[in-house]
Amino acid sequence: MKRRLIIPFTYLCLLLCALLFISPIGLLLAGSLKPDDLVLVESGSWRALWPASASLDNYRDVFSRVDFTHYLLNSLFINGMILGLGLLLNSIAGYAFARLSWRGRGLLFNLVLAVMIIPLEAIAVPLFYIVSLLGWRDTYLVQILPFIANAFSIYLFYTYFIGMPRELEEAAHIDGAGVVRTYFTIILPNAKPVFASVAILTFLTQWGAFLWPLLVTSGESVRPLPLAIATFHGLPPLRWGDLFAFGVMMVLPILSLFLLFQRLFVRGVAATGIKG
Amino acid sequence: MPEEGRGPAAFLLSAPALVGLLLFVLLPFLLAVALSLTNLRLGSPLPLEWVGLEQYRRILNDPSFLHALINNLLFVLTVVPVQTVLALAMAMLLNQRLGAIAWFRVLFFMPVVFPLSLVAVVWVLIFAPGPDGPMNALLELISFGAWTPRDFLHDEQLALPAIMLTSIWQGTGFQMVVILAGLQAISAELYEAATIDGAGCWQRFWFVTLPQLRNTLIFVVLVTTILAFRLFDQVQIMTQGGPHDATTTIMFEAVQSAFARQQIGSGAAMTVVMFLVVLLLSLLQRRIASQEREVS
Amino acid sequence: MGAKLRYLIIGLVLLLVGCGEQAGEQTSAAAVIEVWAHAGQAAERQVLERQAARFNASQKAIRVRLTFIPEQSYNAQIQAAAVAGDLPDALEFDGPFLFNYVWQGHLQSLDGLLSEETRQELLPSIVSQGLYLGHFFGVGTFDSGLGLYARRSVLEAAGVRIPADPEDAWSIDEFSGALESLASRDPDGMVLDLKLNYSGEWFTYAFSPLLQSAGGDLIDRVSYQTANGVLNGPHAVAAMRKLQNWFVHGYVDPNVDDAAFINGRVALSWAGHWEYPRYAAAFGDDLALLPLPDLGRGSRTGQGSWVWGITRHSGNQQAAARFLEFLLEPEEVLAMAAANGAVPATRPAIERSPLYGASGALRLFSRQLQGGFSVPRPKTPAYPVITSAFQQAIADIRNEGDIQAALDKAAAAIEQDIHDNKGYPLPD
Question: Is residue C373 a contact partner of residue C300, using CB atoms and an 8 Å limit?
């Protein structure tokens, strides 16, 4: 009898939470479909979440005001490269730290842990001097290379690999496989969840990058999406509708990535988080 | 035990990532430490001079920077516990075999995928002043008209809480997923044993769930703390550190100093101070964690 | 699986190497000059794009390649490019930053580059803005205007006098009275738009004239070595108290949507020339343009806008100068002025301008510039710090903080900066 009360109560709590978490997103979505001047005016009532006369005008405006496709492709390319190379290099490093013994391992791993707490903003200026000296300004390279190696990713891979059963590798060993082959044939196929979670986390931090590209690029040719949104926010008259339409389109790639891989992602986080 | 006898190969495997970290994180950081001891100004034709600890003396006497330190601490002390408890509660709600539960998980996680700059812009609208602002309208509704509209982002008392709320909204989903994973790893047998021993709901929570989640919670708290110290985007977009430094943060002050005022030296000093504070906290946290491990 | 991955990796590495090299482009016979401009309003951008195209089509020797830089943190981006030795041949920048850029050694004097005829035609305010240490470093194709836009019918209904010339501007008490009587007829009491939705330079541009009208200033303009007693002296404090009172009384609309004036929520909008097209479209003949209030020493207003300069590192200074000359031709000046509503920078253009000529709707702006009512922002390399400190002070004052403390803090920051730079010794 008690049980019968608990279930509706749980659903009530869930629904309430969901409403709180989803309504700002609803505001964004609805606003992107409304005429610019109605976004603010209607935001104080239930109509904030309901575009009475929905139209795609704002989306059309975005395309006419900036070369959205171009920025999107830049962002996709930059993030794709960071993701691809980052997954490979960081996972191999995580593997070496977790499963192989070698001199200097402990020391270097502590170094990785220490580096983990240095935020980009803290090193932006000196890093900027370094890449300027190298003559890398205004390229894709300068937006990719510094972000491939990532201490947090290495750490996540490390915690996942250290929890994998040892028997798999031993079998490969007996077959005479080297470290690299063991990694590609045995470890990789069994580590999809951690790859999914690192991929999504990397994408999450990089997709919105603003400060760094602002400093190291000048032309539109290599600039990513977040710099284009500045054109909308910084320029009067402020058109909320356009801004929101841009926002929706900016978040779509990452949202679909998450929806596609969310099961794997949760499993990956599970395996890394509980090790602490 | 790790495998043996693969020294050079193993080092080579980790080398590319380590070189990256060395070149693009550690080296710039050491350079920042060095710059913090100089009077470097962006673009200045005057010669560079070593000024010793002058920059540190200055920032520690700068009321704005002290405000920033306090705000960062307030932010961490509020957001980390609130977000963790909230995430734990939501994770427990989700850790049940009910229909449509997977959908709720996706919904709760959704804010996490929104870039902070976009989140900040949306919440600027939510905190719009006047009765038309969504937050004002909501508070008026649930207080049956007792709430008088405030300009959240320009109100000394409300600006920092407003930024906290924004951050909690965006960040809770991530913690929730991690904690949910931790919950699902707790074996059902432990609960059954506890129930047989006559433990009620609360007792099971205190004596089974929490101890089993300890490592997960430590991980979550550590990561959230580090992220909280890096607070920047929301401040930049929503309040620019105001009103009266009520929302300024170390990162915001450092970026202001380095880029708006071109004073690289003092900006670098600020980031070094931040690094030291975070380092201290993570050492402390690790200490506590390992002690608890020994106790249990 | 292994093989597929290996190909993927090789592909990624190749792509990465490839993208580093795509910067180089095939060179033709024409000299290519890089030009950076700020990504302003859409109309402004389009005009400049068309101007570059027209210039490129008009001759074969020089090709202009235009890059737009977002206005947000424009100075930081210029500084970043300068450190990397990446500045273009010609670039646009906000007028008062000129002195800092000259001091840093980035700008080439235009003295030998621009023709004498071109310089003769420039407005005095444009010449004074570009002149530093006896040399001419930057030239604008337009100047700015700052005033109060109002709806004539609303002011008349409230019985408020409508001044047309800076000579008979409202006294500050008259202005306060006007706000009060307008507020009493307004449903929410918010009757003044100060463009609080803007950020950065606007606050110095728009509100430092209040200081000057009261007898204060941002810095001592004789020595340019101290702000103490000027920025935080009694005159400046009194001026900022007036500003703060407008907030305290609730007269100021936060203007989050930048539509306070066109939606009719406020009667007065403290704004620049760039709002004229939008406001005129909304209210037509009912739109009135008024000078800023007089705090004792006469009505004062802002001046200066974006200007063009040629960098010292450019290998094509002559070619870059030809592009600037082109932008200063009357047709081009008028084309830009028509797009952004700004005051045309040359006399021949002003004479032909429907807005700024003798009976034009915006003649107040040209009158202010030519009649000595506009004050250029301080000519010192310390300007970036001055404006950053003053913006901070305005933010504190707006949020009803202690005025003396806010101005003291700003003055101290400026002192400190001048001291740190050894008084900004002049370059040789």
Answer: yes
Interval A183-205 mean pLDDT? 86
- Tokens 């108290």 appear where? C241
Cβ C373 vs Cβ C302: under 8 Å = no
Q: Helix count (H) and strand count (E) of chain C?
A: 17, 16
| For chain C, percent of residues with pLDDT exceeding 90 | 69
The per-residue b/e assignment along B93-111, b for 16 or more CB within 10 angstroms, e otherwise, is bbbeeeeeeeebbebbbbb
Query: What is the total count of domains within chain B?
Result: 1
> Of A40, A121, A148, which is closest to B255 when you measure between CB atoms?
A121
The answer to whether the pTM exceeds 0.90 is no
For residue B267, which residues of chain A lie inside 8 Å, CB to CB?
125
- For A197, left (φ over 0), alpha (ψ -120 to 50), or beta? alpha
- What's B150's domain CATH number? 1.10.3720.10
Q: Are A128 and C7 in contact (CB under 8 A)?
A: no
Q: Which two tokens stand for residue C40?
A: 């302003």
Of B10, B19, B21, the CB nearest to A115: B21
Q: A with B: how many residue pairs have Cβ under 8 Å apart?
A: 282
CATH 3.40.50.720: does it fit domain A59-273? Answer: no
Do the strands C268-272 and C146-151 form a parallel or antiparallel pair, or are they unpaired?
Answer: antiparallel
Determine contact: B46 vs chain C, CB below 8 A.
yes
Q: Do A115 and B25 touch (CB under 8 A)?
A: yes
Cβ of C106 within 8 Å of Cβ of B262? The answer is no
Crossing angle of the two packed helices A57-65 and A225-234, in degrees rounded to 10: 110
Q: Which residues of B touch C83 (CB under 8 A)?
A: 42-43
Q: Which of A202-216, B216-230, C294-308, C413-427 has the highest mean pLDDT?
A: C294-308
Neighbors of chain C with 3 or more C-beta pairs under 8 Å: A, B
Residue A122 · residue A212 · CB < 8 Å: no
Angle at alpha carbon of residue A15, lines to A259 and B96, rounded to 5°: 75
ipTM, two decimals: 0.84
Q: What span, in angstroms and rounded, lies between the C-alpha atoms of A103 and B95?
A: 43
| Average pLDDT for C230-240 | 97
Q: A87: nearest CA in chain B?
A: B17
The architecture in CATH of the region C147-301+380-420 reads 3-Layer(aba) Sandwich (3.40)
> Which of B42, B45, B125 is facing C79, going by the closest CB pair?
B42
CATH code, C31-144+304-375: 3.40.190.10
The answer to whether the Cβ–Cβ distance between A121 and B6 falls below 8 Å is no
**Number of residues written out for chain C:** 428
